[in-house]
Design brief:
Blueprint lengths: L5 H20 L4 H16 L1 E9 L5 E7 L2 H7 L3 E2 L1 H8 L3 E3 L2 E4 L1 H4 L28 E9 L5 E13 L7 H34 L3 H16 L4 E6 L8 E4 L1 H7 L3 H4 L4 H4 L5 H6 L6 E7 L5 E12 L6 E9 L1 H15 L9 H11 L7 H11 L42 E10 L1 H8 L1 H18 L5 E6 L2 E9 L1 H15 L3 E3 L2 E3 L2 E9 L5 H18 L9
Antiparallel strand pairs: 1-2, 1-7, 2-3, 4-5, 5-6, 6-7, 8-9, 8-12, 10-11, 11-12, 13-15, 13-18, 14-15, 16-17
Helix pairs in contact: 1-2, 1-6, 1-12, 2-6, 6-7, 15-16, 16-17
Length: about 550
């Protein structure tokens, strides 16, 4: 079972991973890109050493960049290992998806091959999942293939010793695999940009060299594995697409003749039009969605470069379009894992607090505070534009200054008609005895079923979260006190129904505490209030002796 701090660590790692991937995609040259890839493994993924082994034209792999150890960098950078030796390594060990892990118990047979290598020092492992100084972990990098598959091998990332000293878990493995996938795209793009830049330089030479360069540019444009387009710059037809390659037409499912009727502003998703407009035409870069012919959208990375037709001739916009749909999907999966409970699939403690905090500001808004403000003015207060502030519950209290709709809570212990954000804290009664008698597998099955029953009883806009252990929280907006009490009764009645696990009927009880969120409180204060009310309810109930199973 993961600790409460792990979701926060994952979110921090994900943010750092986004930054290092952005760095390697904005590097100026191929050499800078390769070094950024190596540096990103150390700074973003937490390994002590990372090496980029790049496939040369003859098939052998050269150490093109290294990060994490200056001594190793000076010793092995520029050295070459044969393709035969690398193929042997990539066929050995354990395959974690696209990753290859060779434990020290098998890797000793590779000590004398011609692949340049370096070991980070460290103590011998004491536990099963600790990293051994002679363990090896490789992440092959492939060019993007047709229909999202893998193309040819362009290099191998070799990493050594995670900083926490332990073998990477499922999340860490997927992060490294996703990083290698993005590094391959960045290296391919850097090579493509280098080829394009060399072609553009040749275009500025004399006419004979210009004709040769134009042919080179045409081939690089037409046969590029990712989408390319040329658009007009300036004038009435600014942005109109003049030419596209086959890769872009395949990506969007549109013929070249149809593409010439559009500009990118015609194809972009309505929600991303602002991103496109904010992107500078001269060297700008953006991630947005483009429309396919079938009405669906695909996430792309769009990079613009300005190309002059001649010394003083018209300028055109060269646009490089890279399919990043797979990367976006993995980012969403990683973000979901960081914010949701792995057992029940419900939002976890971190996500619950984030959702609560998004509804709360630090300005108190209960009725007494509003009446005091009214009395202080002697009349309804006015904003800087002369409009009266709306002090009604739930209204935008300071509309002249912000657009936050304040969260208020019922003042009276009786239902006075005020609707607020109810926070129902649920603790299962008798759950520990199920774990003790039938084991944790039975306990997990009960938690999963309770989560399903709670989710089934709430509205679409409500939140059911697992706080940890056998504690759940429900956020339900727009309820009065009577509504919240009715909801607690319905949820309790649903939970106490028998739960069948492995042929046994098991029962758990449920205690509910109803708290109310209002601006001026923190998320922790809201949860503490609901928790305390639950314990008050428990103490007020007569003791019941219920046998599980």
């Amino acid at each position: 079972m993961e600790t409460e701090s792990e979701p926060y660590v994952r979110l921090a790692t994900l943010r750092q991973l986004h930054q290092v991937m952005a760095d390697m995609n904005t590097a100026r040259s191929l050499a800078d890109t390769l070094q950024a890839v190596a540096d990103g493994v150390v700074t973003g993924l937490g390994y002590e050493l990372a090496c980029v082994n790049l496939v040369r034209p003859d098939g052998d792999l050269v150490v093109a960049a290294l990060a994490g150890n200056p001594a190793a960098e000076a010793l092995i950078t520029g050295r070459t290992g044969s393709r035969e030796s690398w193929d042997r390594r990539l066929s050995m060990g354990e395959h974690w998806g696209d990753l290859v892990f060779i434990p020290h118990t098998e890797g000793w047979v590779l000590d004398d091959d011609d692949v340049p290598q370096w070991y980070t020092d460290g103590p011998a492992p004491r536990f099963e999942d600790e990293w051994h100084p002679s363990d090896r972990l490789f992440a092959p990098m492939y060019t993007p293939g047709v229909h999202g598959g893998s193309g040819e091998l362009i290099g191998v990332l070799s990493v050594d010793r995670p900083r926490n000293g332990r073998l990477p878990g499922a999340w860490g493995r997927e992060a490294l695999q996703m990083y290698a996938f993005q590094a391959a795209i960045a290296i391919s793009n850097a090579r493509l940009r280098a080829n394009m830049q060399r072609a553009l330089v040749r275009l500025e030479r004399d006419q004979q060299a210009l004709r040769a360069s134009e042919e080179s540019f045409r081939q690089a444009f037409e046969y590029a594995p990712s989408g390319m387009a040329i658009a007009e710059m300036g004038g009435d037809q600014h942005g109109r697409i003049l030419r596209t390659n086959d890769a872009l037409c395949r990506l969007l499912g549109r013929p070249a003749s149809a593409m010439r009727r559009y500009s990118f502003s015609d194809l972009v998703h309505p929600e991303d039009i602002g991103t496109l407009l904010r992107t500078s035409a001269e060297g700008g870069r953006a991630e947005l969605r483009l429309g396919r012919r079938d009405g669906t959208y695909v996430w792309v990375s769009l990079r613009n470069s300005v190309v002059a037709d001649a010394a003083d001739g018209p300028r055109f916009l060269l646009t490089h379009v890279e399919d990043i749909e797979e990367r976006k999907r993995r980012e969403l999966q990683l973000a979901h894992r960081a914010s949701h409970d792995s057992l029940t699939g419900l939002p976890n403690s971190a996500e619950l607090r984030a959702r609560l905090s998004s509804r709360l500001c630090q300005r108190p808004t209960h009725a007494g505070a509003l009446e005091s403000m009214d009395a202080a003015f002697g009349h309804p207060a006015y904003d800087v534009n002369g409009h009266g502030f709306d002090f009604r519950p739930g209204a935008d209290v300071l509309d002249g200054y912000d657009h936050h709709v304040h969260t208020v809570a019922p003042e009276s212990e009786h239902d006075d008609g005020t609707k607020g954000l109810a926070v129902l804290f649920c603790d299962l009664d008798g759950f520990k005895s199920i774990n003790d008698r039938f084991g944790h597998n039975a306990g997990d099955a009960v938690l999963i079923e309770v989560a399903r029953r709670l989710s089934r009883q709430v509205r679409d806009g409500d939140t059911v979260a697992r706080l940890g252990g056998d504690e759940f929280v429900v956020l339900a907006d727009g309820l009065g006190r009577a509504d919240a009490q009715d909801l607690a009764v319905r949820l309790r009645n649903e939970i106490i129904q028998p739960i069948r696990v492995d042929g046994r009927a098991m029962r758990v009880g449920a205690s509910f505490g109803i708290g109310w969120a209002h601006c001026g409180m923190t998320a922790d204060e809201v949860l503490k209030s609901a928790d305390e009310r639950m314990y008050v309810e428990k103490r007020s109930r007569p003791k019941q002796h219920r046998r599980a199973g």
